[in-house]
Design a protein that fits this description.
The complex is a heterotrimer of chains A (about 110), B (about 250) and C (about 130). Chain A is mainly alpha-helical and about 110 residues long. Helices cover about 80% and strands about 0% of the residues of chain A. In chain A, α1 packs across α3 and α3 runs antiparallel to α4. In chain C, a hairpin with a 2-residue loop joins β1 and β2. Classes of the chains: A mainly alpha (about 110), B alpha+beta (about 250), C mainly alpha (about 130). Chains A and C meet through α1, α2, α3 and α4 of A and α1, α2, α3 and α4 of C.
Chain lengths: ~110, ~250, ~130
Amino acid sequence: MAKTKEPIWWSLFGAGGMISAVLTPITVILTGIAIPAGLLSIEAFDRLIHHPLARLYLFLLIVFPLFHGAHRLLFTLVDLGLKGMRGTLAVVLYGSAIVLSILAIVLLIRLSP
Amino acid sequence: MADTISLDVFRYRPDQEDEPQFQRYEVPFRKDWVVLDALNHIKDEIDGTLSYRWSCRMGVCGSCGMMVNGEPKLTCSAFLKDYYPNPIKVEPLANFPVLRDLIINLDDFIQKLGEVKAWLLPKDPKPISEGEYLQTPAQLAQYKQYTLCINCMLCYAACPVYGLEPDFIGPAAIALAHRYNLDSRDGGFQQRAEAIFSHEGIWECTFVGECSRVCPKHVDPAGAIQQEKVASTLDFYRSLVPWGKK
Amino acid sequence: MTGKQYVRPVQSNWWLQKRSYTLFMVRELTSAFIAGYSIFLIVMVYWASQGNEPFTRFCDGLKSPLSILLHLLVLAAALYHSITWFNLTPKIMAFWRGEEKVSDGAIQGANFVLWLLASAVVAGIVFAVARG
């Protein structure tokens, strides 16, 4: 009997949930309030985003929450009645998370200081 | 004229009808009465045809679980005064097939108890002549909470996942598997894995948490399931590395 | 078991029937906003790699009312996610000191402190780098 691979998706969901719980609010405040309010100048933000640590931060805050959302949305859509489409939904949601993660990693590598 | 309260009771008589209906009964309102007292009054004084399960009438046997105003409750612990003067709707426990009136078919749950091997599988079996399996108070404390389950199935009635997917092993069964997995005398973790580390097992659960909210004995099956998810995940990753094999 | 049984169907709007079910659904749907913000960050990284001018134009876009509104929606969702997530963490693992279990409140408190500290550190680093 093939052992279920569910622990992989669940641990990605868990990591994404913890990372986004800790870091998403402050980051949203930065890009959504601090910049428009002028508390953070665009020039400073440009310098900041090219800092090597910023790339690590963005990697964590992009990739893991994508898998968190994919996993949670899959189960939510099934609970909302789309049980029959579970296989298709899994491919679309996890697949999107994988593709977007690869895109993010490529873009972050190309973001030279 | 003494105070009364209305009970709207779910009636289903398979020999007489295809569809269930509600029947309203007026029962005396007594401040110390619970819904079970009202049902007993109905059966004794008004309508002897009403069928329902009950036993200890003190919240330890798990027999009298029903939906009271849409909430899974032990009817021996649901006081009339908390609903008075409004009518009380009494229905069979949700998510289970109804056999008659307020009686449900609980075969599914009983079968699942067997599937999860809800009994001790000793780590180092020994004959009785060699004495007891010893355990410290600290070791007992680890799993004691999960021993308190009275198999009342209120958690199954509360769980929307079980309602949508009857194959789901369910809160109480997994909590009981967890009870044995945490027991220092037990060595059955891998044997239970096939039943609970499956798609119908722990991975069906989305941590709604309703099971723990309605549990009359504060077993916290939701917590048990999440802890088993962690245990299963650690076991999974351990099995991937060559030094992780036992 | 033989004989006729009555099976009560689960309604498709089951999650609207009870407040606790609806709150659960709201909690789960916050993950869509969280993932959506990841996609926004990807777009931001793209524009940051396109040079000064394009990135400045992107950042000007952040000042628009639409951007601020969307950010506030994401912030509301993210806060609900964070609060519900930290409140649930004690359930995932039990920590024991002899016969006593570390209380739920202690674990929740530690999580909220971690959240505050991390947020403060991030904000601190951002404004320190910004100042030059």
